[in-house]
């Protein structure tokens, strides 16, 4: 088996409910994962929109997720998940900010990418940009999985 991630809020390739967007309540969706490699010491999650007009837009990074976790409840933040950290997203905030594509731009695909890491903890300042976190974790990735949600305005 290999690492997999799903969301009870939407199926892979289907529409993200409005409550998980900036047009709604802006709550991170619940996520669940399984079949992590036994050597997993922590996880990192990044949410990206590669369809953004100016290139890939990062909506959230949550890192130092403990290895014992098998998912995240709706509305998770670093304050809720003890020991985890969040970095600066494309909106300039250190939190989850859901989909909000330009009106009339068509459907955007939001990749919820989870990586299992061989490191128990990464020392990353909260002021770090989301894309820089993903670059920093590359040498520690032992497995990856993603679930993709779609949203348009």
Automatic annotation (TrEMBL):
Keywords: Kinase, Transferase. Pfam families: PBP (PF01161). It comes from the Bacteria. The keyword Transferase applies. GO terms for molecular function: kinase activity. This is Raf kinase inhibitor-like protein, YbhB/YbcL family. It comes from Microvirga lotononidis.
